[in-house]
């Protein structure tokens, strides 16, 4: 079974059923929570659901795909608590290596942030917009209400016995199961609209730049357009499976932002510095995961967006080189060579840049130059786990 | 007539057998020849991915060996469908690049994340220059697994054998046998 094919299938199935959200014209009205701080389930059905989700969370806690880095987790947790201070103790964050734009929040307080989201958002305010939206679903009990609705249509005892399976949802024992559980995170258009509104309200209270909420949607729509414009069969955005994209939606968020800006003082500009410094540390890992998806159009688009962040130029040029070398269309090998050469001018270039430069030169039968860069690589990475192979390349000579 | 019916039934049942014991003698698979070491069962075409010859010692979720070859220029290890992006082998690839296509294939086939890269080194196959590499990954089931690959590019074709097993107990359990098998590989 293929995770990404399933993502796509689920996306299509859900998108086929959900209408897009129309742009609003009415004034912004505040949203109130349906969940109080320190909330606990208060009936059998909800407790049964929590039990199922707790099991899934246990698996998630120990998943090898979980990113446990303290600094990154503390940073994202800080955003959660800034947005929903009173609920800070109720929400448990899990950042996972999954190279797609997505975030999910379960009714028991488990929040999952995918690494692909961190690679795509431009600043802390955009990340806060996505988190705020998910908090909106949680505070309005959307997922819970949907599940209870579905339960009402089925047998209660079956639900309590076999849990989510009784609702037609496979029990989640892993992160990737949550992707397959997309249907439980799918919401009606009214719920989406409400979560958008709640998210922007939380952002305003926390003094984030509320205009960035619309920018997140615009960026995602742009990415998908750019990839699809190239007649690509590359997999779409899983987030869209549960959060239908629409330009109307973005317009609605912009209208809200405009209305709220009139009510209150203009917000402070987006927070770049700490965001980039904290998240950029992981760009290499995130890009490595992205490259392995073999989606050159999407990877190229993402790299272009990262360039604008003006951080880690050596890393970005290195992955540009990787993209070109692997794509291997006419002239790409020369372009890849240029990218690697540019990369090694910067201190943040990974040592692998020297190795890859050696590889592209070796393929062009420029042995002497290749050897020089291979030697650089071994000098900078004396314990490289491919040392024996590099030494073999060094023994290669013109026929 | 009864005998014929019984014979047909036995034939049909045996045809549906998901596993067949691999004989401990030199075996030809996809242009490769290998001498089995240890006790292995071959998966039926019903269980294997795209009919790729696959063996297992304890069940394919716990350990397996897949035999790929000959993969020609612009051919993929796994064909997949219109919705998949499995990478292609190119005849000018160096071993370092074969690692990438195997990692990408595993990532997509199992919805996996590569957890750790292992060594990449030259490895003689029938006295010809091949290569061996390994890495650790976790698929959809979140179980950490080890993978060991041995391959060679010969006459512009890729031949490669992939052993993978759950890190916990299973990977090490059969590793010596797998290494012996990999050392026995020759290209037909």
Protein architecture, described:
The complex is a heterodimer of chains A (399) and B (188). Chain A starts with a helix and ends in a 5-residue tail after the last helix. Chain A is elongated, with a radius of gyration of 23 Å. Chain A has 399 residues and is mainly alpha-helical. In chain A, 46% of the residues are buried. Helix content of chain A is 61%, strand content 3%. In chain A, helix 17 packs parallel to helix 19 (352-363) and helix 20 packs antiparallel against helix 21. Chain A has 21 helices and 3 strands. A 3-stranded mixed sheet of chain A has the order 1-3-2, sandwiched between helices. Chain B is α+β, with helices and mostly antiparallel strands. Chain B has 3 helices and 11 strands. Chain B has helices spanning 2-15, 95-109, 170-183; strands at residues 19-21, 27-29, 32-34, 41-43, 54-56, 63-71, 113-125, 128-138, 144-154, 157-166, 186-187. In chain B, the strands form 2 sheets. An 8-stranded antiparallel sheet of chain B has the order 1-4-5-6-10-9-8-7, sandwiched between helices. A 3-stranded antiparallel sheet of chain B has the order 2-3-11, with no helix packed on it. The longest helix of chain B is centred in the middle third of the chain and has 15 residues, at 95-109. The termini of chain B are far apart. The chains are: A mainly alpha (399), B alpha+beta (188). Chains A and B meet through helix 1, helix 8, helix 15, helix 19 and helix 21 of A and helix 2, strand 7 and strand 8 of B.
Mean pLDDT of chain B: 90
List the chains of the largest interface with their residue counts: A-B, 40 and 39 residues
Number of strands of chain A: 3
Q: What is the rounded distance between the termini of chain B?
A: 44 Å
> Spans of chain A with pLDDT under 50 lasting ≥5 residues?
1-22, 166-173
For the largest beta-sheet of chain B, the strand count, sense and barrel status come to: 8 strands, antiparallel
Shape of chain A, please? elongated
Determine the number of helices of chain B (DSSP H or I, runs of at least 4 residues). 3
* Strand residues, percent of chain A: under 5%
Spans of chain B of 5+ residues with little confidence (pLDDT < 50)? none
